[in-house]
């Protein structure tokens, strides 16, 4: 175990976690109006209707596979299915999800580059985010398809290296040796992934941490026509929101 391994697999992950948490807190406190995807649907929707579902549903499958592979110990899955079956499912489902995500982000980048108003609304931060996100997806696919053998031809199982290292981080006892034994494909994929997580609080990806729970509890929305007057209840007041600081047209008072 050398100093570089200690830095990459024992120090950097915690620095990234600290950056992610502190960045989210800072963004929420000082930039709530910027906590958005800055939707460009008004500029172009034809490609977006295809690219966005491909990317988001593919990404959900990818994240689900990562959680299963990283958090569930190999000994647990061995009680249910064989290693060969697990490998086949992980390879087929992971490849399908990765391709869907890659095609989705490729279409999103193409749309952003070729649609004038969308391109003009693209910041340098967006460009950096797309490069890192695409790199994480590409090297994730490379790791899935080619990362099961070391350069010397030996068999490599990421659940005996990467997964053990990841779980060790959660208990603050990083197993650096396990991660150092992983193949280069997984190492590159993880480093790009760490860079992506560090960038999240400072990019449009921050919207992934938004859960609109308030929609479950807010009152209903009343739609009124500009021409027709809304129905008046028997007690003389309009159902719905009470006017606040505006003129009640039906009653002629504020």
What do you see in this structure?
This protein is mainly α and 254 residues long. It has one domain (3-216): Fumarate Reductase Cytochrome B subunit (Up-down Bundle). 58% of the residues lie in helices and 0% in strands. It contains 9 helices and no strands. It has helices at residues 3-30, 48-71, 74-78, 83-114, 116-120, 124-146, 162-170, 176-180, 184-199. Helix 1 runs parallel beside helix 9 and helix 4 packs antiparallel against helix 6. The termini are far apart.
As for the number of domains, it is: 1
- Runs with pLDDT <50, length 5+? 246-254
Instruction: Give helix % range.
Output: 55-70%
Q: How would you sum up the major sheet?
A: none
Offer a concise description of the structure.
With 254 residues, this protein is mainly α. The protein has 9 helices and no strands.
What's the layout of helices and strands?
Blueprint: H1 3-30, H2 48-71, H3 74-78, H4 83-114, H5 116-120, H6 124-146, H7 162-170, H8 176-180, H9 184-199
Helix pairs in contact: 1-9, 2-4, 4-6, 6-9
């Amino acid at each position: 175990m050398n100093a570089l391994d200690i830095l990459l697999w024992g120090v950097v992950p915690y620095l990234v976690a600290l950056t992610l948490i502190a960045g989210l807190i800072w963004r929420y406190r000082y930039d709530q109006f910027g906590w958005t995807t800055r939707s460009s649907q008004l500029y172009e929707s034809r490609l977006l209707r295809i690219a966005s579902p491909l990317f988001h549903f593919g990404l959900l499958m990818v994240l689900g596979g990562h959680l299963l592979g990283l958090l569930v110990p190999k000994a647990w899955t061995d009680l249910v299915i064989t290693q060969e079956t697990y490998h086949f499912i992980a390879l087929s489902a992971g490849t399908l999800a990765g391709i869907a995500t890659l095609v989705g982000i490729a279409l999103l980048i193409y749309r952003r580059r070729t649609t004038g108003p969308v391109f003009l609304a693209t910041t340098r931060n967006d460009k950096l985010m797309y490069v890192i996100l695409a790199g994480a997806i590409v090297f994730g696919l490379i790791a899935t398809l080619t990362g099961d053998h070391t350069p010397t031809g030996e068999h490599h199982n990421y659940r005996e290296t990467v997964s053990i290292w990841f779980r060790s981080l959660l208990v603050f006892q990083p197993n650096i040796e396990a991660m150092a034994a992983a193949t280069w494909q997984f190492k590159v994929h993880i480093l790009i992934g760490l860079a992506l997580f560090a960038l999240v609080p400072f990019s449009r990806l921050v919207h992934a941490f938004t859960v609109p729970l308030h929609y479950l509890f807010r009152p209903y929305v009343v739609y009124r026509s500009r021409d027709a007057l809304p129905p008046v209840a028997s007690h003389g007041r309009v159902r719905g929101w009470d006017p606040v600081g505006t003129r009640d047209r039906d009653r002629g008072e504020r």
